[in-house]
Amino acid sequence: MTTLDAPTATITTAPAAAPRRSLLTSAGGIALIVSPLLLAAGMATIPPGEDGTTAGYVASLAATPWLTALSAGLLHYSWVFYALGLLAVPALVRGTRGRGVVSVVAVAMSFCAIQISGLLLGDWYAMAIGRAVPADQAATIFESATTDLWTSTWLFSGKLVGFAGAALVVTALAWARSVSWWLLALPVLGTASMVVLPALVGNAGLAVGTVITFGPLFVIGAKLVSQR
Question: Which interval of the chain is the signal sequence (predicted)?
Fold first, then answer.
């Protein structure tokens, strides 16, 4: 009696998570590359005429509504892309060293970026108020809104991510040995240039300083896009 054993076939399927992870990390990398470009463009298009006072600020926004809308829109979306891109940053960490630190910093800075993105809506309101009521009344209304505890908290969050966000992300990634420590030089130089350059070349100085300050995002974004 002969026994015939039917051949067995093994079907191997590629894990579904791999391409999805690559797509998400690449999208996050692109977002981080786009973010500082939009931020610099938003800085370059800030309406002129601000004299450091609340009344002067509101008046400058009201004087050129189209420029106010352009600048505020660019700034808003720069922080949106920043917030989304940061959530992909932990994917750069290969080992266990620094993974928790990178994740905490990325989520915290993403949260701050969300806070400041929403605060940009105030530019449209300031513009409308400045065109609807006298300058002193417009300044009073604007100050009442911006000194509220909620908006003050949002503004503080925005200042935190604006001045320290890039440096904190680089420090966490460098500790995890995912990027080089030399990238920390860019936020330091950029912040210094944003103090000096605007006095010399106006908004163009703000734009240049922004690109330098958030320069590490180009490197981090490129690493996310090229990661396999």
Answer: none
